[in-house]
Please model this.
Amino acid sequence: DADVTQTPRNRITKTGKRIMLECSQTKGHDRMYWYRQDPGLGLRLIYYSFDVKDINKGEISDGYSVSRQAQAKFSLSLESAIPNQTALYFCATGTGGEEQYFGPGTRLTVT
Amino acid sequence: RKEVEQDPGPFNVPEGATVAFNCTYSNSASQSFFWYRQDCRKEPKLLMSVYSSGNEDGRFTAQLNRASQYISLLIRDSKLSDSATYLCVVNGEDSSYKLIFGSGTRLLVRP
Model:
């Protein structure tokens, strides 16, 4: 089984809809991250969490919210999706400063 | 200016060739450096860390030049399976262990 899983893997939604992307990990890591990837822009950090009680904004948090339900679960919400949120979203875990382990990604399309 | 800059490529090389990628970073306080590999539509995975003294892992050699703030990756005896996008990654300016990703250099190895 994969160490970091993301659901759904693909999603098409309409403008204005609320959508939640979920991430679970079995690596036992405290740190979890949400990134989005756009062509030519690389990975950009949306939110990160160092433990269940710690949530921090990344460089592009506007329009997004997160919830750390447990050490192993970190979900990303788009309260009212807009087309420029169409992207590939990755969840990642880490122990701090070194390697991060990524989930397989969620391809989100907002029409 | 981007915090981490890479030539997007693509670098198109024959099997067996040696190819080198460079990357520059803007934050002189960065302490940790990495190369990640990303296959098409897949998640990034750590290829190797980059140490001040340079390091080698089989056909891959990474170098760090702190004075000039650039990182290099050398691939010898290229294989078809090396075709991927290579992401240059540095840690963020604070102690929060955020990683800053370059947008990647695409490598195509042809038969």
